[in-house]
Amino acid sequence: MSFVKYLLPALAATKxxxxxxxxxxxxxxxxxxxxxxxxxxxxxxxxxxxDTYSGTLALNGIKKITGSLKANNATGVSSMTADSLTSIGSxxxxxELTGLTQLSFSQLNSVGNIYWEALPELQSLDFPxxxxxxxxxxxxxxxxxxxxxxxxxxxGDFNIEDNKHLESININELKNSTGVINFSGxxxxxxxxxxxxxxxxxxxxxxxxxxxxxxxxxxxxxxxxWGTGLKNFTAMxxxxxxxxxxxxxxxxxxxxxxNLQTVNGGFIIKLNEKLDSIDLPxxxxxxxxxxxxxxxxxxxxxxxxxxxxxxxxxxxxGNFSCSSFESEFKQxxxxxxxxxxxxxxxxxxAGSTTGSDDNSGSSGKSSSTSSSAAMANGVYPATGIAAxxxxxxxLF
Length: 396
Ligand SMILES: *[C@@H]1O[C@H](CO)[C@@H](O)[C@H](O)[C@H]1NC(C)=O
Ligand SMILES: *[C@@H]1O[C@H](CO)[C@@H](O)[C@H](O)[C@H]1NC(C)=O
Ligand SMILES: *[C@@H]1O[C@H](CO)[C@@H](O)[C@H](O)[C@H]1NC(C)=O
Ligand SMILES: *[C@@H]1O[C@H](CO)[C@@H](O)[C@H](O)[C@H]1NC(C)=O
Ligand SMILES: *[C@@H]1O[C@H](CO)[C@@H](O)[C@H](O)[C@H]1NC(C)=O
Ligand SMILES: *[C@@H]1O[C@H](CO)[C@@H](O)[C@H](O)[C@H]1NC(C)=O
Ligand SMILES: *[C@@H]1O[C@H](CO)[C@@H](O)[C@H](O)[C@H]1NC(C)=O
Ligand SMILES: *[C@@H]1O[C@H](CO)[C@@H](O)[C@H](O)[C@H]1NC(C)=O
Ligand SMILES: *[C@@H]1O[C@H](CO)[C@@H](O)[C@H](O)[C@H]1NC(C)=O
Ligand SMILES: *[C@@H]1O[C@H](CO)[C@@H](O)[C@H](O)[C@H]1NC(C)=O
Prior knowledge:
This protein is mostly beta strands and 396 residues long. It has helices at 4-12, 31-36, 322-329, 367-376, 382-393, and strands at 26-28, 42-43, 47-49, 54-58, 64-65, 69-72, 76-82, 87-95, 102-105, 110-119, 131-133, 137-142, 150-155, 158-161, 168-170, 176-184, 191-193, 199-206, 210-212, 218-226, 232-234, 240-247, 254-256, 262-263, 267-270, 277-280, 285-286, 290-294, 298-301, 306-307, 311-315, 337-340. Helix content is 11%, strand content 38%.
């Protein structure tokens, strides 16, 4: 697409009214090109910022871009501002804008998807209207310290990775995610608050310090915490999850999910050395295996009625009775049975290694049906995620 056709009118007068057909796909190489489309109230197509663009960019006048606003590898762009833009229909893609320090979109409210990656100098967002609607949001390797301005009420996949300065997030209005909310590799002190998140497809947390989601009722595909600094996790209204994992959270001393009834997948609690007590008063059904290992003293299942996979419970110093569990629950467990309340190895990863049990994230019967069943439900097998994570963790 030629930007040249906008140059002449731009030089003539920015007030020239364009027929809407002239306001299609546009590539911007300089501010003059941007001025040339300033009288387009709607751009019916994409606005692409050329990688050779240098300096500040003001996208004034435009109210709506029906397609994408994108810049790849435009390392010379120092700021982007837009005084009238309310919506971007498709992608808002910023990739490798290593010189970008300012994003000011005073009216922006709705975006198809956000894909931002490698914006190391961008420390804050200036979105005073707040982006309340977006599909998928992926924010990777930026200098952001918070996500103020991202005021979503609902989101698809929400992937927040490798933002080394990200310290706190509070998305007060977020009620609903149709995709996976995924945090990893951000500042280890990151505090996350989703005060009103009610229904999520999935939530996975790595390298975070606290997670507050008091209204959560369902995490359909998964809920998992790996290698976090979390001290406690409280979800009073949580009734149902997919795979549920608390793995390697050395400060975790309290898991409170008093209304959890159904885990549609594997349920793993391991390597949480401060966790002394596990109480699951309403848990009835586990669609995969239960694998709890550690140093916990108390363990209570109030209502356990069906476990489709294995039951593997091992503690170094548990004051719970494996024989009463056995008489109460063994006939309700379809997979292998293992219970040991005083296994000195149980506090280490090795302590939980009991053959195939360890891999039975989603089924106790056979690992092949396990992973295909899990995948068919759009669930990542917990062991797969952990494996990927540990592989990635080597890179840091
Ligand atoms: C980005 O631009 C630099 C310099 O122009 C170039 O060397 C590099 O290959 C580009 N990277 C990508 C991913 O296009
Ligand atoms: C939006 O970005 C995603 C991820 O990069 C890409 O798969 C998709 O094709 C893009 N959509 C459009 C309309 O450009
Ligand atoms: C966006 O959310 C933040 C934090 O919850 C809040 O302070 C701000 O007022 C909200 N902005 C708008 C425009 O709703
Ligand atoms: C969440 O959003 C999806 C997509 O818009 C919608 O279908 C679903 O009903 C919403 N769920 C809740 C609980 O609001
Ligand atoms: C979540 O993060 C992990 C680890 O970085 C990554 O492997 C995975 O693809 C992410 N998931 C989504 C849905 O973005
Ligand atoms: C939990 O559910 C109850 C009953 O539906 C509701 O009244 C309460 O506000 C919910 N708590 C939170 C923190 O959302
Ligand atoms: C994330 O946490 C893991 C496990 O605790 C750790 O090995 C890794 O170094 C952390 N990564 C970052 C970027 O802090
Ligand atoms: C949970 O941990 C947070 C800090 O991460 C702390 O402020 C809060 O008091 C703790 N709540 C309980 C019930 O222990
Ligand atoms: C865990 O925290 C909840 C409140 O969040 C509290 O009611 C419960 O007593 C705590 N359990 C333990 C073992 O500290
Ligand atoms: C273990 O539990 C029993 C009954 O639940 C109790 O009587 C006993 O004092 C407990 N022992 C320890 C060391 O906590």
